[in-house]
Amino acid sequence: xxxxxxxxxxxxxxxxxxxxxxxxxxxxxxxxxxxxxxxxxxxxxxxxxxxxxxxxxxxxxxxxxxxxxxxxxxxxxxxxxxxxxxxxxxxxxxxxxxxxxxxxxxxxxxxxxxxxxxxxxxxxxxxxxxxxxxxxxxxxxxxxxxxxxxxxxxxxxxxxxxxxxxxxxxxxxxxxxxxxxxxxxxxxxxxxxxxxxxxxxxxxxxxxxxxxxxxxxxxxxxxxxxxxxxxxxxxxxxxxxxxxxxxxxxxxxxxxxxxxxxxxxxxxxxxxxxxxxxxxxxxxxxxxxxxxxxxxxxxxxxxxxxxxxxxxxxxxxxxxxxxxxxxxxxxxxxxxxxxxxxxxxxxxxxxxxxxx
Length: 356
Description:
single chain; alpha/beta; Rossmann fold; two-stranded parallel ribbon; 12 helices; globular
């Protein structure tokens, strides 16, 4: 049984990755931050209490923080995982302008703390660094592994640092250290302050008569939006390769926030112009206008292809948020998900994990 360690296991990607690895027969370990409230809602449906007699437990949680080195070294040394997926970060781009120092510490230096823990513990673990398309910033689209980075936020700059130290440890210490440069990937488990989920939650609430308006910033930003469960499959594929490398993961299709609004509102027969208001507070000091993936390397080497595209993604997210709001969704998103995925990924785990 392979062992895998996931930082950021309680996040969107971490929860889907944990599901995938458990389905593949892994023993999964996750690092979570200590809090006075429960913060594990995305993984509650796959977590089993180790005190239950006779129940086999393959998911284990450990308190720790990527802002400190000691716990990282202890966990890696004691577990001896074959694979480490580093997903933890302060990952909200707009918030990084308000908390630049914290973002640099957690998102940037957190990566080198884990790499050092791997090196000092003499671990042979394969390492995955969650890099971001935000690193490309102002670079002309489409962007691939050879595109020059032009970060336009503290978050993006921190991710560029993490990208280069990962490559440095790969070349300097002969580590199996990789970067997955993931373009925007969304799902019903996306954090409520990210624009896609903010939109789908608001549409459901407006349809239910619980909300009057939705306040947003720049509607003209173009993004390459994919479906998160497919992207964690790519993470796993990256660590199964014979040699370490860096990979861009994306759909090769870009849409504006305005288009996302239109798709979401029209799904429930509403006109977004009647409900959306612009709030300057949501504009970034420096905007990223256009991100579009050239994922040729992933298609050729990983044989990875997206199965869910933009219009289908919106429907999946809308069905989940309508269901959470207590409404009966049209069901197109649920049908798409159940047709495209089998085994480890089910509609029930999309919604149940968010009920608390």
